[in-house]
Design brief:
GO terms for molecular function: ATP binding. InterPro entries: HAMP_dom, HATPase_C_sf, HATPase_dom, His_kinase_dom, HisK_dim/P_dom, HisK_dim/P_sf, Sig_transdc_His_kin-like_C, TCS_sensor_his_kinase. The chain is an alpha+beta fold and about 450 residues long. The chain folds into 3 domains: about 5-150, Beta-Lactamase (2-Layer Sandwich), CATH 3.30.450.20; about 210-295, Signal transduction histidine kinase, dimerisation/phosphotransfer (DHp) domain (Helix Hairpins, Orthogonal Bundle), CATH 1.10.287.130; about 300-455, 2-Layer Sandwich (Heat Shock Protein 90), CATH 3.30.565. It has helices spanning about 5-55, 60-70, 105-110, 145-190, 210-260, 265-295, 310-325, 350-365, 420-430; strands at about 80-85, 90, 115-120, 120-130, 135-140, 305-310, 330-335, 345, 370-380, 380-390, 435-440, 445-455. The strands form 3 sheets. The protein has a 5-stranded antiparallel β-sheet, sandwiched between helices. Strands 7-9-10-12-11 form a 5-stranded mixed β-sheet. The structure holds adenosine-5'-diphosphate. Adenosine-5'-diphosphate binds near residues 362, 391, 398, 417 and 421.
Length: about 450
């Protein structure tokens, strides 16, 4: 069911319930009042007749005559007077006798002084009447035709007014629901026009104040994030194809050139060495991409365990020296390690080693002395690793971009690379809840500082 319909029905039912309660209260209060007033009137009329009989001493026959000849005698109250011994002293119309008093009824009036009850539509009142120190029993019965007709009229009016109001309330509810959901409908139409090919479109944010505007703003923010991520993916793919094409083109050109004519052994060796170099670049690139993919996994999918960072750094140093025997890697501690926890973190061994190798390799390859100096410091909450080199440094303009994927600084001519290393390193450090910072001075050197929380 549409929200519009649901809102309309809810609104109509609520209003109907309120109207019904109101109508019931009005009807039953009127009904009670009519009943009370009629009983009172009956008693008054009966008392008046008893007065005429006892005080004014009007003959019973005269009273009966007046009763029978009254123009609305059918609706008149029929009065009867008894003494306490249940002897009839007066009756308006014995032949009709609507009440048919019994001894029980007379006894009940004597003990309770007054009783009121119904015989079908007839309202009957019986009460004790005192005259000259003696008690008499007076009964009066009549049907409140006028009051009942008024009540029936009221009931019909209430029913018609209720039905009429419900129709109006339903239509008003429909109008209100449509009006209040109008912005949602236009939002939906707006959103329908946005696809992967026009992610730059945004939905109308209206007055930027109400709940619908809040939804539109949140949606636009989500679109911003999606667009950025789409753009980043597009850039990423074109960067990868570029990075793959460069060494492949170089390999192809080298091999084609070599094949053009007969070469001597030295020339063949040189061509093969170049091709191997390009193939190694491709392997490094594909390894980096694989690592990047691993670092992009959900944290829950990556196996974490307790790792001693000093041992991991020694492993990383070993790997770097294995690949580049000319590198120099120094590791030092700011202070002694008292227990394992001082230099331990909860992390993924493989990814952290990749991050450290990247930083050590960068330090070595961007410095003439091919040296990376690593120092380890720690306190109760964090471990701080500093990777310093005395290399060519990074210019202030380049510095803000070095953590972007595929970004290579203007000093890239100094050493080979693919621009993935630092972005991958940052991702890995983020994944471990740590921070990475860089300080650099051109021609003086660079220091990367990593801060990782303990276990
Ligand atoms: P790559 O080293 O493959 O070029 P990285 O992502 O590791 O890519 O580094 C990005 C850029 O940051 C490098 O191209 C370089 O300009 C700069 N850079 C990183 N580390 C250093 C360093 N230790 N000294 C000088 N420049 C560095």
């Amino acid at each position: 069911m549409q929200i519009k319909t649901r809102l309309t029905l809810l609104y109509t039912s609520l209003m109907a319930a309120m109207l019904l309660t109101f109508a019931f209260i009005v009807y039953f209060t009127s009904s009670e009042t009519r009943e009370d007033e009629y009983f009172k009137r009956l008693k008054q009329q009966a008392a008046t007749k008893a007065n005429l009989l006892f005080d004014t001493k009007i003959e019973p026959q005269v009273l009966q005559l007046i009763y029978k000849n009254a123009p609305n005698s059918l609706f008149q109250e029929e009065v009867a007077v008894y003494d306490t011994g249940f002897h009839l002293l007066y009756h308006d119309a014995v032949e009709v006798d609507k009440v048919k008093e019994t001894q029980g009824m007379i006894d009940s009036i004597i003990s309770r002084k007054e009783i009121q009850f119904y015989i079908k539509d007839l309202q009957v009142v019986g009460f004790l009447y005192a005259h000259d120190g003696r008690s008499y029993i007076v009964t009066a019965a009549a049907k409140d035709d006028y009051g009942l007709a008024k009540l029936a009229n009221l009931r019909n009016t209430v029913i018609i007014a209720f039905l009429f109001s419900i129709i109006i309330i339903y239509l008003a509810g429909q109008f209100l629901a449509r009006k209040s959901l109008q912005p949602v409908s236009s939002l939906v139409n707006n959103v329908k026009t946005i696809t992967a090919t026009n992610l730059d479109l945004r939905v109308d944010e209206g007055n930027r104040k109400d709940e619908i505007a809040e939804l539109a703003i949140t949606f636009n923010e989500m679109l911003n994030r999606l667009e950025n991520s789409f753009d980043a993916q597009k850039d990423f793919v074109s960067n990868i194809s570029h990075e793959l094409r460069t060494p492949l083109t170089a390999m192809l050109a080298e091999l084609q050139l070599t094949l053009e004519k007969d070469r001597n052994n030295a020339e063949y060796r040189e061509a093969i060495a170049h091709t191997i170099g390009d193939a190694q670049k491709l392997i490094r690139l594909s390894n980096s991409l694989l690592d990047l993919a691993k670092a992009n996994y959900d944290q829950t999918e990556i196996a974490f365990k307790n790792i001693r960072l000093d041992e991991l750094l020694l492993d990383a140093r070993f790997d770097v020296l294995h690949n580049q025997p000319s590198s120099i890697v120094n590791i030092s501690f700011d202070r002694d390690i008292d227990n394992d926890n001082d230099v331990s973190v909860y992390g993924n061994e493989y990814l952290l080693r990749v991050a450290f190798i990247n930083l050590i390799e960068n330090g070595c390859k961007f410095s003439a002395d091919h040296q990376s100096i690593i120092s380890i410091a720690y306190d109760g909450t964090h471990i701080e690793l500093r990777f310093a080199d005395k290399g060519i440094g990074i210019s202030a303009e380049t510095l803000p971009h070095i953590f972007l994927p595929f970004y290579r600084g203007e000093n890239k001519k100094f050493a080979d690379g693919n621009g993935i290393g630092l972005s991958l390193t940052k991702k890995i450090i983020d994944l471990h809840g740590g921070q990475i910072a860089v300080q650099s001075q051109e021609q003086e050197g660079t220091i990367f500082t990593i801060k990782l929380p303990h276990l």
